[in-house]
Amino acid sequence: MSTPESKTPPNRNLNLLDRDHSILAFNERVLGWAASEHVPLLERLRYLCIFSSNLDEFFEVRAEPHVTAALQHDAKGGYSAASFHALSDTVHALVDRQYALYNDALMPAFAKEGIRIVAHVDRSEAQRRWVSEYFHREVKPLLVPVALDPAHPFPQVANKSLNFIVRLHGLDAFGRENEVAIVKVPRVLPRLSRMPDKLCPAGQLLFVSLSSVIRSHLHELFPDREVSQFSQFRVTRHSDLAVDEDDARNLRTALRHGLQHRHYGQAVRLEVASACSDHLAEFLLKQFGLPEAALYRVHGPVNLVRLTQLVDLIDRPELKFPTYAPRVSWEWPSGQSVFERLQQGDVLIHQPFQSFEGVVQFLREAVEDPNVLAIRQTIYRTGADATLIDLLREAVRRGKEVTAVVELKARFDEEANINWAEALESVGAQVLYGVVGLKTHAKMMLITRREGRKLRRYAHLSTGNYNPRTARLYTDISHLTADPALTQDVENIFMHLSGQSRLAPLAKAWMAPFQLHQRLIERIAALGTAASKGVSTRIVLKMNALTDEALINALVQAGQQGTEIDLIVRGACMLPAGVAGLTDRIRVRSIIGRFLEHSRVFYFREGESDQVYLSSADWMNRNMLRRIELAWPVTDPALRQRIIDECLVAYMLDARDAWMLGPDGRYKPVNPAGIGVQPGGEAAVLQIGHSAHADPGAQWALMQRHGRVERR
């Protein structure tokens, strides 16, 4: 069967941007928030830690083929030693900026606020005594130094764990000259500890890092030996699980087995302290089988991610963003049944500006309503919050038919999802694991309710996950509906996932891997054709990533035919904007702000007619062809315009948190004054749907109304 790619010829004259470098460019924009003096200090540190976490995931998921190509000096599948070194140069430059920001900007700023992480050389005698007592009481009993020799080979070092390598002089207790030892730092210990107030100068908060505590007492772990050299080190390993689903008789068991080995995949990056000797660095590179360019000498803690603990340990509200409280959904009259409200029309909940509690209420009422007979739900990333799982378990206890489609292969959430699946099965829920070879990424819930002599369906569809915690941090759209055609589509999809029968025709929704890719290409092509005939056409798309080449080619062609195209892409985007003669009509912007921009919204206009689709899918090949995804239309005129205003217009007028992509692949902030700064000047007229905003005051009123920004 031909794929949609074969029907869209590539644009030979346009060089697409490299995906990996585009991901790194996104991380650079995150780093921009850590660098901005207009962001509260603790939030700047949080963004620095987010940057570190993103970089960790980049190495865990994307670096392995680059490293392999460099080691084997073999060019294959677009990877080569040259591509590895180009990528390595970019990352090294970013890491240098990261630690310069940490040392030269953030730590001095914290010191001015009376907050310091105190190094050993800066501690008073009383502080050193306290650290020594802490080391002997809490730390030393958990340390196991391993001196290397034939009977004590180099230990297994887990992914992203903190360790010390030590070079020793002198003979051991058996008269041998084994000179290298490894000390693993237990993960159960906090990376930062607060000193007692009596040891702190008035008005100051002092902390000590675990690495500093161990470093200042390393010699005690090797009595009668001289510690001549030492360094912290941390290795990052390839951690993307690969399970042969066709071979696995039980996917859950196979994944549990795979999780046991995830922490010991191929090494892809080695971090050491900047002062690490060449001898120890070369020893570690050899042990992990890494090229020299995979070595990162850092001027500070080798794991900045763990400094998020500092944000939690400091109770200084003025150094954080003001507390944000989402509004209760205004469409939901107090005391009215969810089902009564949905019989009157659809409801949209724009998270986090409106509370996710509306979704929880929808499920809770379904659980408690004796007329509800069945509940079906997909589970992709629910996190550690058991609220929705507990409600599903309670529904089973009340005799309702509960079906949960649990995606066990949600990256880095596999173990949590296995545990949720087992918890649901233990009370008798029907738990399914989707379709072999495809991840179930669609977010949908279907409630079947008896009303008189009829059964009526109610559905919840979302651009984001069923996760109450991230619903406070991510922008997403929840769509609640009793539309018979759309809820029938949802039922057909659940029947397909459970019975694996042929998918019944869908009336409104587009589903991957079947129609979604082709429908999008056809819609874009239709607008391009209309534009070539003189019809005014417009495409505005909001998503997390744009890397699918067939969709990119379709957009490029439509733009060349006269369609005006605006793309709001938070992360990786391989389509270069504004290339003369090729993508002149295509503009790409990225919004990096207080909340993670996660909603996927697709707007198409031809003449006076427009369509708005919400979706669970980004425009990536994996989403289109290797996942169960869903896109569905919003047909209510008022709700459609609300999405246009809140999810498209507000972001296209955002000159505070926006970056624009240039034809060279570089992003520049829209506001030259810097990220997080309220801009001045005139806003350009923007026409989408029935919105027209030319007044900067109207721009800010619209954005504030929906919680996008707070005046400073």
Care to give the gist of this entry?
With 712 residues, the chain is α/β, with parallel strands linked by helices. Helix content is 35%, strand content 22%. A hairpin with a 2-residue loop joins β28 (686-688) and β29 (691-693).
How does this structure look, described?
This protein is 35% helix and 22% strand. The strands form five sheets. Strands 14, 18, 19, 20, 21, 23, 24, 25, 26 and 27 form a ten-stranded mixed β-sheet that branches. It is of the alpha/beta class and 712 residues long. It has three domains: 271 residues, 2-Layer Sandwich (polyphosphate kinase like); 170 residues, Endonuclease, Chain A (2-Layer Sandwich); 194 residues, Endonuclease Chain A (Endonuclease, Chain A, 2-Layer Sandwich), CATH 3.30.870.
What structural keywords apply?
single chain, 712 residues, alpha/beta, polyphosphate kinase like, Endonuclease, Chain A, ten-stranded mixed beta sheet, eight-stranded mixed beta sheet, disordered C terminus
Q: What count of structural domains? A: 3
Shape: globular
> Per DSSP, what share of the residues sits in E-state strands of 2 or more residues?
15-25%
How much helical structure, as a percent, in the residues?
Answer: 25-40%
User: Oligomer, anyone?
Assistant: single chain
Unreliable runs: 1-10, 243-249, 680-687, 691-712
- Total count of helical runs of at least 4 residues: 19
Cα separation of the termini: 56 Å
